[in-house]
Specification:
By secondary structure, the chain is mostly helical. Helix 1 packs across helix 2, helix 4 runs parallel beside helix 6 and helix 7 crosses helix 8.
């Protein structure tokens, strides 16, 4: 349907069909990691990391987690910055707080690519004293440094607001105004 900007202005019914992690699907997704279409590779990364992050209650699940971590770690350095950032985005910690691949996180921490570092910060830095933020604030790249400084300030403001709310106060909004 033509919309005001030339595209569809309304989305009709959408059905997304999930695929179960059968052995055949897992092998297909592993094969897709080496495909030439970045979208297919991104979907494979997402699916494999999402499954590998689940609790590994069986030997097979533990082996699969290790295999996915190794496969992603091997391919990560050769991915372009968008797929590297995408991988970092889905490299969420498991129930024990560990990523599927510590090597990917280590490589992302050393990356000079602003997109990769920003995604790493957004997904992993949760308090203003985070070593990830401290390291990024010291980075030579002004985009990485500036984003880290802004994020640290935002996290500090969030912490102040949470502390004030807990104490029953409203913090200063930065312009000398409070809601009290």
């Amino acid at each position: 349907v033509p919309g005001p900007l030339g595209g569809s202005h309304q989305v009709g019914s959408l059905q997304a069909r999930g695929l179960p992690p059968t052995p055949n699907n897992l092998q297909l997704w592993i094969k897709d990691l080496d495909g030439t279409d970045p979208a297919v590779r991104a979907v494979a990364i997402t699916r494999l990391l999402s499954i590998a992050r689940q609790p590994a209650d069986t030997i097979e699940a533990q082996d699969f987690r290790t295999e996915v971590g190794d496969l992603i770690s091997q391919r990560y350095p050769s991915l372009g910055s968008i797929l590297q950032a995408w991988t970092v985005r889905f490299m969420l910690p498991d129930e024990d707080g560990e990523p599927v691949s510590r090597r990917v996180i280590d490589l992302a921490q050393r990356s000079d690519d602003p997109l990769v570092r920003i995604v790493l910060l957004v997904m992993n830095a949760t308090d203003p004293s985070s070593p990830l933020l401290t390291d990024a604030i010291r980075h030579d790249d002004p985009v990485i440094r500036g984003f880290a400084q802004a994020m640290k300030l935002g996290l500090e403001k969030d912490a102040e607001a949470a502390a004030a709310a807990e104490a029953g106060h409203t913090p200063d909004d930065g312009h000398g105004h409070t809601a009290d």
